[in-house]
Write a structure and sequence with these properties.
Layout lengths: L1 E4 L16 E2 L5 E4 L2 E4 L4 E4 L6 E4 L1 H20 L4 E5 L4 E6 L2 E7 L21 E9 L12 E4 L4 H12 L15 E4 L11 E3 L1 H10 L5 E5 L19 H7 L1
Length: 248
């Protein structure tokens, strides 16, 4: 068994939101006493758009848990808005002061399951990133889709993973690039159609731009490895060294 600290009821998160997140009936996540227990067996979470199962593993659970806790904490520490994108829900959450303050539906890429590995795989990166540029037409900043926020993919860790995969011949023949230009941009939110970006309708984009700033933390996860609503005690979480370095 793998045991994670239980998320204590103390911050009343997302109680007004109606999540589309659905655990399968055989979900490996359940409560036991004062802990959340995640079994080591591979299982599935359902995709909110297709209804198809998504593979759940302990490695993914740990990675997604860390990413979620980090963006919540940063919204508290910096007293500024952070973004969290949950791919299986097709939702983008706006976080402020350690709480969820708003959300909007998003459209994903043509191959939405799994983290981006290389240019042309049709996937969206997963992990913690930052907004590196606000493309709103000011100062010559423009996107092919109009309004957009550029994400700093690839970061140091993406490059390290890519180079390791390249050395170990784990990538398709001819692949030699990680890709880039990953944006949160204007576009339909009712289909998965991008090449690796996150699409948001105009109303949602306006909400995001109102709070956007360069350096804004962005967390992207495949699913949430615990049940909604989220009652998270962000103060009990200690960041990993990797995450501390990303804060610099």
């Amino acid at each position: 068994m793998k045991r994670l600290p239980m998320f204590m009821a103390g911050l009343n998160l997302i109680t007004l939101l109606e999540p589309s997140f659905v655990l399968s009936k055989d979900s490996p996540t359940h409560r036991s006493g004062e802990e959340i227990v995640i079994s080591d067996t591979t299982n599935h979470i359902l995709d909110s758009r297709t209804g198809e199962p998504i593979e759940v593993t302990i490695d993914k659970d740990d990675k997604y848990y860390r990413t979620i806790m980090e963006v919540f904490q940063l919204s508290q520490k910096r007293d500024k808005t952070s973004l969290l994108i949950v791919k299986n829900e097709r939702k983008l959450y706006l976080l402020s002061s350690g709480d969820i303050v708003d959300s909007c539906i998003v459209g994903l890429s043509r191959n939405p399951i799994g983290a981006k590995q290389y240019q042309g795989d049709g996937r969206i990166p997963e992990g913690r990133y930052e907004i590196s540029s606000i493309k709103d037409g000011n100062n010559g900043t423009r996107s092919n889709f109009g309004l957009a926020l550029l994400i700093n993919y690839p970061n140091y860790y993406d490059r390290a993973r890519f180079n390791a995969a390249l050395r170990n011949n784990e990538l398709p023949v001819g692949v030699n690039n990680l890709g880039g230009d990953i944006e949160i941009h204007l576009g339909p939110d009712d289909i998965d159609w991008t090449q690796g970006c996150i699409a948001v309708e105009k109303e949602g984009m306006e909400k995001i731009l109102e709070k956007a700033y360069e350096g804004m933390p962005v967390g992207i996860v495949g699913y949430v490895p615990f049940n909604h609503p989220w009652n998270i005690n962000i103060y009990t979480y200690e960041p990993y060294e990797e995450e501390r370095s990303l804060e610099q």
